[in-house]
Amino acid sequence: MNQRHTGEPVRPARPAHRPPGLPGEPAKEGAARVLRHAAELLHPRIPAFAESALTELRGASSYYGNPLLEPPGLRESAHTALECFAGGMVEPSRTSESGEYAWHLGGKRAEEGVPLQAVLHAYRVGGAEIWDTLVGLVMRDCPEQGHLMAFAANDVWGRVDRDTALVIEAHRRAAGRLPEDDGRKQLPLLKILLRGYTEATRVSAIAVAFGLPLHARYAVALLRGGAAERPVTEPSREVRDGMALHWCPQEDGLAVVALLGDRSVDDLASAIPASPGRRGGISTVVSGLMELGHARELAELALSSGSADGEVVRLADRLPGAFILARPDLAQEFAVQVLGPVLEGDPVERDQLLATLAAWLDCQGSTEEAGKRLYCHRNTALNRLRRLERLTGRLLARPRDVVDLAFALESPRLTGRPSRG
């Protein structure tokens, strides 16, 4: 009945005017313009938006919602990913940036031991949050053009799909290069413990799940410098000289969690040989997993107390310096009290007196050896020391006064704070 005599179906007449928003070049151009405008509105809001997206992710993901499992630097990586994504919609020349960052992040998460499904969940949640926010910004700023966002959806979700595919491939490739069963799954948990997490129930769960003794002799070493990097193809857990070593990459270097057993910190120092371009510090022994955060702080003090290029120092050998670094304000005040008259004196004399005191201490109290080190006669060195005694009221013949002077002398060097002079 609805056929012409030719047998062809009857086609409805085309409307005289095509309504806005139907497929066509004007609608595509309008969608691109509106999407770019929405991205420009989003760009300055990225810090707040990143926090909101992280809140949503933590609520939606059992992995990221667990403070024990959340990767370090999550806030920074979320901010960077969102900035690259929005920037690519604002500037066509930046279109590839979010894909490049997705590739970097996929490999990084694999090396950190984060499961691929958790990473994909994060990208899906982030994509949904971006889309909802872009639509909301358009409807608030220019609601009369909100219908154009229907055409922009292909662009936005195409970008999300591209980045997700790159994350998957990068994660799989990186995971394929890693040794199997090398302790990498423990890294996220150990990193949380190194940051000071001490909730007893969850820490005990870590101990049970990964076969780590809750109460045992542990120590932490921190390594910095280019030579401190560890190839991801090397195992994250290994046994050296009877010690189980867990190598944990950090944002600023490399941490080593050592289950010492009956070994000593000296044995740990020997197992982590010094090398050019590497410097490090080793904590004292702590008695369990819940003290790993404290051990990391102690290792940081050891590293900062004077380790030089190619040197790995033990905190036990640098305890006075650790005291200074732990409370630099009090250490500086102590230095001023002990050496105040010297610090306030003539700069030339001040430098001579302090250099002579340092040389005398390094030479085990020998004025003759101190003079040789300073290229002066022993009597000159002796006269300078006598002058320092008169100014400070401390006598080098009194052991307690020598301790005060040595401590005060070390304070400005370690704290980096200028003396009163």
Oligomer: single chain
Poorly predicted segments = 1-25
How many E-type strands? 7
In whole angstroms, the N-to-C terminal distance is 107 Å
The global form is elongated
Q: Helical content, roughly? A: 55-70%
Largest sheet: 7 strands, mixed
Counting H and I runs of at least 4 residues, what is the number of helices?
16
Helix/strand class: alpha+beta
The ordered string of helix (H) and strand (E) elements is HHHHHHHHEEEEHEEHEHHHHHH
Q: Strand percentage, roughly?
A: 5-15%
Q: Gyration radius, to the nearest Å? A: 32 Å
Averaged pLDDT: 83
Question: Would you mind describing this structure in some detail?
Answer:
- With 421 residues, the protein is α+β, with helices and mostly antiparallel strands.
- The protein is 57% helix and 9% strand.
- The chain has 16 helices and seven strands.
- The chain has helices at residues 25-42, 46-60, 74-90, 97-112, 116-141, 149-177, 187-194, 200-210, 265-271, 292-304, 319-326, 328-343, 347-362, 367-374, 378-392, 399-415, and strands at residues 215-224, 237-240, 243-250, 253-259, 279-282, 286-288, 312-314.
- Strands 1, 2, 3, 4, 5, 6 and 7 form a seven-stranded mixed beta sheet that branches.
- β2 (237-240) and β3 (243-250) form a beta hairpin.
